[in-house]
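Tutorial, part two.
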Amino acid sequence: MVEEGGDNLMIIIREYNHQTDSERVERVESSCEVGPNGELSLFTDLLGDPICRVRNSPAYLMLVAEIVNSGSDEKAEIVGMIRGCIKTVTCGQKLSRNKFSGEPPKPVPVYTKLAYILGLRVSPFHRRMGIGLKLVCRIEEWFRDNGAEYSYIATDDANEPSVNLFTRKCGYSKFRTPSVLVHPVFAHRLPVSHRVTVVKLSPSDAESLYRHRFSTTEFFPRDIDSILNNRLNLGTFLAIPKEYIWAGAGKFISDPPENWAVMSVWNCKDVFKLEVKGASKFRKGFAKTTRVLDRVFPFLRLPSLPKIFSPFGLHMLYGLGGSGPMYTRFSKALFGFAHNLAKKCKCGVVATEVSSEDPLKLAIPHWKVLSFTDLWCIKRLGEDYSDGSVGDWRKSQPGLSIFVDPREF
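Running the prediction step on this input gives:
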């Protein structure tokens, strides 16, 4: 796709080529690292191929924007990029009744084909030229060609240029405001309640439990089995009372304990790394002091800040949920287990994302200084629906929970 940019400049939107584009894309990423006015900013430092963030999705595409000067022999300059993927997710539920069984109707999921945009970047030196808009429009064409019914993006509500681009120019509407909860990994281990047993589930048992428990949860991916069997998935863990005997998913589903919680861990460390930029020498010195004290006196269990001012790894916790009046306590036990696993893997932080309505928002340990509120915006791409029982998903009310796909974090 070629468009005139004025002054003999042509803007070319084309598919990303790892062999020729990798280094130039990384330079654009680096130029977008620090937030406005140089304040503290978390940014993604991609490892290797920049398309790796979406490669684990069922269908994906990465586009780059080049500027070519038709009156010059200089090589085309990459000034922007965008990534997108498509999957099938739960967008609502309906009641299914078996008139011959006499049983009450059961909720069943209603699915839709959903596209997700991430990694939109435009070089600071080439903004206000409509490049971001051209990239979004082009990837939406690919979404439509591949049957996607909705497209959504996640951005920082404080990022006015991004919010304005999608809501004012691209037709997106604000949809959900989940919370990203981030906790540093300490030099000491976190205690896990001795009243709780943590069991690692096989991928097949985890799939059975997730489909039984979460299939009607908003954004639940229909290909959950692909996620659970992915090499980046470090396991699914179930917290149950000490006295309960685990005998497989079938027995658990038919006769669960009163209180339980489940969680899976995704290894983002092997896909990308993060770094905090713009910190003063005082903040860096203070963080180093907390690490030294924690390492020397681990028995004091002092809160310490890892090396977040250098590239560090992340473990993403997803699929959090459970049942019972004490399930948030069991979730805390799983969080402690996940923290200790991240410590063993030398990760800097553990993070999860929960609905703004979810009680886990208050129960899961996190640091406010590292955590933030996400803004999800959604757009309807077409008029045809595979199932008309839900209507327009954009107008639905948020539920108590969402299922966050770790492939998109």
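The chain has two domains: 2-178, 180-373+397-408. In part three we will examine how such features are distributed along the chain.
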